Amino acid sequence: MTAVLEVRGAEKSFPGVKALDGVDFVLRAGEIHALLGENGAGKSTLIKILTGIHEPDRGEVRVFGQAVHFANARAAIEAGISAVHQERNLIPRMSVAENIMLENLPQRLGFVDYAEVNRQALLWLERLGLEVAPERAVRTLSVAQMQLVEIAKALVLEAKILLMDEPTASITPHETDVLFGLLRQLRDQGAAIVFVSHKLEEVFALCDTVTVLRDGRNACHAVPLAEIDRAAVVKFMIGREERVAKLGTKPFDATATALRLEDVATSFGHAGVSLELRRGEILGLYGLVGAGRSELAKALLGVGHVTGGRVEVAGKEASIPDVTTALHRYRIGYISEDRKAEGLILIHDVASNIGVTIWRRLAGMLGWLAEGRVRRAVAPLVDKLQVRTPSLRQRVGNLSGGNQQKVSVAKWLAAEVDILIVDEPTVGIDIKTKTDLHELIWQLAKDGKAILLISSDMPEMVALADRILVMGGFRVLGEVLNDHDYGRMSRAIMAHIHEAEAA
Amino acid sequence: MGLALLIVVLVAIFATVNPGFASPFNLFSLTRVMGIDMVIGFSMMVVLVTGGLNLAVGSIGVAAVMVGGWAMQVQGVPVLPAMAMAVAFGAFLGWINGQLTVRIGVHSFIVTLATMSIFFGAMIVLTKAESFNALPGAFVDLGRLRYWGFVSGMLPAALIVGVGLWLFFNRTSLGREILAAGANLEAARLSGIRVERTIVVAHAMSGGLAALAGLMLAARNGAALPSMAGHIGMSWLLPAFLAPVLGGTLLTGGVISVVGTALGAAMVTIITNGLLQLQVGEFWVQMFLGLILLAAVLLDRLRGVMAERRRQVR
Amino acid sequence: MSVRWGLPVVAVMGLVAQGLVAGGALASDTRVALVPGGPHPYFAAWADAAAAAAADFDIEAEYRVPSAWELSRQNEMIESLVAQGFNAMLVFPGDAVGTNSTLQELADFGVPSAALAGCTVDPSAASFCLGTDVARSAYLGTQELIEALGGSGKIAHFTGFLVDPNTQLRIEAVQRAADETGGAVEVIQVIADIDAPEPADEKINAFLAARGAEVDGIVTTAWVPAVVAATSLRNLGDQRIKMVGIDHDEVVLQAIADGFVHGTMLQNPYGQGYIGSYAMDLIRQGCAVKDDAPWLETAQTARFIDSGTAFVDAAQVADYQAAMVAVTEEIMATFKDDYLACN
Amino acid sequence: MTDRLRALALADWFGLLVVVLVAGALLAFLQPAFLSTYNIYVLLLSFSLWVLVALAQMVIIAIGQMNLSVGAIGGLVAITFAGTMEVWGLPIPLAVLLGLVLAALCGLFNGVVTHVSGISAFIITLATLSIFKGINIGITEAQPFYAIPDAVKAFGAARLGGVPYMLVVPALAIVGVWLLFNRMVLGRQILAVGANRHAAELSGIRVGRVVVIAHVLSAVLAATAGMLAVARLQLGQPTIGDDWLILSFAAPVIGGAILAGGHVSVIGTCLGVVIVTLINNALVLLGIDPFFVQLLLGALILAAVMLNRWRERRREALA
After folding, report:
1. What is the ipTM of this complex?
2. C9-132+268-308 domain in CATH 3.40.50.1360?
3. Which of A310, B162, C244, D287 is the most buried (most CB within 10 A)?
4. 3-class SS of residue C224
C-alpha cells in the first residue's frame, strides 16, 4: 500500500513549549489509523499541521508523495485533506445542507444553487442515517445530530485523506455503529482515515494501525493493532503501566438523606423524576448526550425552574430560585461539564477562580476583601488537590486541562458545599489526572459529601458510583445497584436504554 | 507600562519643541482637562468590564449636572449635598440602563443608544435647555482649585476616584464579582453570583461617575450647561472610549485597568494639547490626532504581543 | 488661510519668549487670536480680517479653529493659545454662559478678551461683545418676513441646536415679532436641532409636505437650515412661500437673486474680525473700555456693539459686501473715541 | 399556502411590517397630508439616504464588528465628489468613480488594519473616524463646495410623482445586498465568519479576505450615501455624515441583526429605516414641540427594540 500522507521529523515550538519534537507519521491508503496520546502529547498540534492551521518549524509533510506547505486551512482542503475537528464548527443559523456544503457551495450564474446544495447534502445525510431535513437550521438540532452534520461536512469533500478528531464524543452507540460502518466502507474504497479518540474500546473496534505520541515524540509508529493489546497501548501513552485508582471501602449512612426529588417536573421538560441522594453516597446519572442530565442539575440549581413535584434538601422542602440561593442556603455546588464556557474564568487567576464562591463570606465591612484572607482560604485547597500552578496569580487559561478541572473542583470545596453535582468530570482529561480525580471524588464522598455524578463514561461510572440511575428523554429509565463489575453493569444499563428505545 | 513610557516621550518632545507646553498656565489647564477626561473614561470603563457599553455617559452627565445646578441655584441646596444629589441622580439613570439591559435581554449598546436620546430629551424638556449660571461661588471655585501653582484640583480628584475604583475592583467582593461576571457570565452565574445585579451595579456606577465628571466640568465652566457634552452627549464618547481602550481594558469584559485608563486619558489630553501647541494647521489637528491614536493603539498592541512572547519564553 | 507645516522652532520659541514677557510696552507685541466655536463657513471671513488687521495695525493676528464644535475643545484651544504666547483673545462663545469661566481665567492671567459674533451672558470678563445681537437679528428678520407677507399669515421657524442658549433667544424673538401683530401672524411650527444637513433636509421637506400649502412664510435663524430650506423651495419651484434666511451662504444668496428666498439677515464677520483685532491692540496698549460708551443692551449683555445687521433682499444681493464694508468703516471711524479711554 | 403564511409570520421582519403598517395607517388618520404625493416623495428621499447608511453598517455587523467611521467616510467622499467636480472640473462619472475608489481605499485601510492587528474594529474605526473626518476638515476648512453640476442637482431633485429618481440607487443596493447575503457565496462567507470565525477558518474560508471585503463594501455603501447626500443637498457640505452613527446602528438592530455577528436581515434593516423615517416624519407632521422630539425619538426606538425582542422570545418559545 502506498503512503498517501507522510510526516517526517516534524518539529513545532510554541513560546516556552516544544509541542512536537521530531514526530514521524505515515498514513496509507485503505487504512484506518488511530492517533493516540495524552493531552499535551502533541496530537492536536500534529492535526493542526495537517489541516493547515499551523506550519511546522522543521520537518516535512508529503501528501501523495509531494512535499506540501499549507498556508491556511483552505490549502489543506485543496490538497485533499478533510477533517472533523474536535470543536464545534457549525454556523448555527445556517441550514444543515449549507453547513455541510460550506467549503464548496455549488453555484449557478454566480448565485448559490440551493436546490443543488440540498440535493448533495441529502445524499450524505442518508448515508449517515441522519433523518433531518437538509433545510433545517443547525441550531435547532440536538448535540448528537450536530456532531453527525459535522461528520457529513468532512465526508462530503470525498477527500482521500480524512482526519477525525474525537468524532464520537457526543453521539449514541447506535449512531457510532452506523458511522463506523461507513468509515469501513470508505476505507475499503481506498480512503485513508486518521482516527483520534480517548475511547480505546472504539480504537480497537475500528482501527487497523496505531501511532502513539508522548511528550511530542513518537511512543510508537504505525504499529498494526492486531499485534498489540490495550495494556501496551496505554503503556505507550503514559509511559508506564496504567495506575488503577485506589478506592477503598466507603460506607455511608443510609438514613441521612441529603437530596430528595419526588416526581419532579422542570421547565426544561423533565417529568416524573424521583431520586434520593444520601450523605457520603455517589449517585450516578448515566445517559446519552441529550438525556437531560445536565439540565436536571441546572434546574435544581435554579438556572431553570422546577415546575412540579417536590424537592427536599436535608429533609426540608426547598425552593431554589437561583444559583446564589442554591449555593448559600442549600449548599449545592455544580462542576460544569463545559469548563471553558461555564466552569472557569480563563482570563482570571487561580485565586479568583477558587475564591469566587466564598468572596461574600470572606468579605469584611463594606465588602472589603483582604488579599491575605483570600490567599489563606485558597492556598490549602491548591495544595490538597495538588494543582500544579506556578502561583495563585497564574491565569487559569494557562494551566493544563487536568489542573483546570482541579481548580473547578477546588472552588466548590472552598464553598464547603454538602451536595456536589459533578458533570462529566473527566472529559478531555488524560489518564493520569483522570485517576487522581476519581480518587478525589471518592474521597469527597467518603468525607460525607453527597455526590451526584453525571457521566457518559461507562467505566468511570462503574468504578465510582454506588447506585446508577439511567436517564433518557428527560426521565429516569431505571436504577442499577452498582457491584463494580463492568460487564454486568454495562449490560444492565444498556438494557434500560434499549427497553426505553423499544417502547 | 508602555503607556507611561509613551507619555514621558511625548511630554519630552512637546516640552522641547514648545516651551509654552511646560508653562504653569498650560500645565494647569492640561491637568484640569486630564482629570475630567479620566473620570469620563472611568465612567465607561466600569461598564466595559461587564462586556457592555454605555453610550449614554454624556447624556447622564449633563442630566445629572442640571439636577445639581437646579438644586444649588433654584432650591438653594448647599454645595456638597447638591453634588451628592447629582451623583445619586446619575447613578439612578445608570441603574435604569442596567435594569433595561437585564430585563430586555439585549446588548447594552442598544439600550443606551435609546436612553442617550431619552435622558437628554427629558433634560431638555425639563430645563427648556436653559443653563444655570449663578452657581454658588464655593462650587465654581472647585474648578479653579490649584496646587503647587500648576496642578488643577481636578487631577487629584480624578486620581482619588481612581484609587477608589482600584480598591473596589481588587479588594471588595462586589467588585470581584463584577469582574467575574464580565469575564464569563455563565461561569459566574453557576458560581452563585447574582450576575444581573453585577450588571445593574456597574451601570449605576457608570452613571454616578458620569455625573461626577459632569460636576467637574460644570465647576470648570462655572455653570451647569445643557450643551456641555454636545448634542445628546455625543462629544463625551471619544474620550470615554479612548481612555479605557488605550489603557488595556478589554471591550469583551472581565479585565480592568484603572491605572491604564488614567494613563490613557492622560495620553490623549497630552497629545491633543501638544498638537495644538505645535501649530500644525489647525484644520489638520483632528487628522493628526486620529493618526497618533491609531499609532498608539497599534504600538501598544505590538508591545503586548512582544511582552506575551517574552513571558511565555520564561 | 495658510496651512503651516511647522514653523521653524527657533522662531516659535522667540515668539513665545516675547509673549510670556507680559505687559510689554512695544507697539507691536500684541498677538491676538480669533477663535470661532468650531469649523464653520461663517467664520471664513475672520481669516481675511485677521490678515488685514495684522498688516494694517502692525500686530500679529491669527485665526485658529477648534477641531470640533465643542465647548471643551474650544476651551482647550484657547488655553493652548495662551500657552503659546497669544496675549489677546477674540472668541465666538462656544456657549454663551460656559465660555465665561475661560474668559475670566484669561483676565486673571492678564489676557484681555472680547466676545465676537455672538455674546457671552453677563456677568462676563469679556471687554465687550462685538457682533450680532442674535435676538434682534431674529426679531428684525421676522419683521421683514411679516412685512413681505403683508402683515398677516402663518409662519414657520427653523433653527439650530436646542442646547445653544442663542437658540432660545431666537425662538423667543421670532415669537415676539409674531405676537406683536396681535394674532395676524402665527408661528405654526418650530423645528430645531437641524444643524446637520441630512436631518435638516428630512425634516424641512416633511414640514413642507405636511403644511406647505398652509404656511405663508419661513424664517430661518441658523446657517444649515437656511441653506437647506432655500434649496428645498428652489426644488419645489415655490415662490409663494416667503422665506427670510440668515447669513451669506452662496446658496441662500443665489436663491434670493432667483426669487425663491425673500431675503437674508446678514451679519458682518469680516468687520467683527477686523475691528475686534484693532480694539484688542488698543486695549493691550493701555486703553480701557469706557463705562459710559454708547453701549447697546441686549438680552445677554450690557456691553454690546452692533457689528452691523443688514437685511438683504433681491435689490441689494449683488453687492451685499459693499454694505458691510461701509458699516465696518463707519464703526471704525469712531470706535476708539466712543468705546475706549486711552492715555 | 398556510405554510407560506406561517413562514412569513415567523420571519424576522414580520412584526416590523405590522408596526409600519399600523403606524402608517395611524399617521394617515391623524394627518391626511401624510399620504400626499409630496410627503411620500419626502419619505422616500429620506429612506434613500438612510437605507444606504444602514446597509453600510449592517455589512459590518454581519461579521460581528462595528464601523464607527461610516459617517466620516460618507462625508469625506461627499466633499471629494463635490470638490473634484468644482476644483478640477472632473466629469460626473469620473468623480463618482473617484469617490468610490477613495471609499474602497478607506474601507481597505479599516479592514486591513483591523485584520492584521487583531484589534477590535470598534477601536480602529474610532481612530479612523478621526482621521477621515480630519482629512475632510483639513481639505475643506469647513467650507462647502457649491459648484455642483446641474445634472447632479437635477438628479437629486427629480421625481416621478411620489418617487424620487434617486431611489434607483438604494433600490439597486438593497437588491444587491440581499442577493449577496442570501444567494452569493461571499455573503454566506461573511455571515459564517460573523457567526463563528474559527469554524469559518477551518471550513477553508479566507477570513482575512472576507473581513477586508466587508469593510470595503461598507465603505462603498457609505460613499454612495455620501454622494446621494450631495445630489440631494445640492452642495458638498463638509458636515455630511456627522449624524449618521445612531441611525446606522438603530435600523439594523431594530431589523433583527445580532450585534455579535452572523445574522442580519436586509428586509428587516429596510423596515428599521422605514420606522425611524416614519418617526422623524411624524414628529414634524404632527407638529411636536421641538423640546420633546429627542425624548420621543429615543422612547420610540426603545419601544421598537423591546417589541422586537418580545416577539423573538415568543417565537423561540413556540419553536
Report:
1. 0.85
2. no
3. C244
4. helix
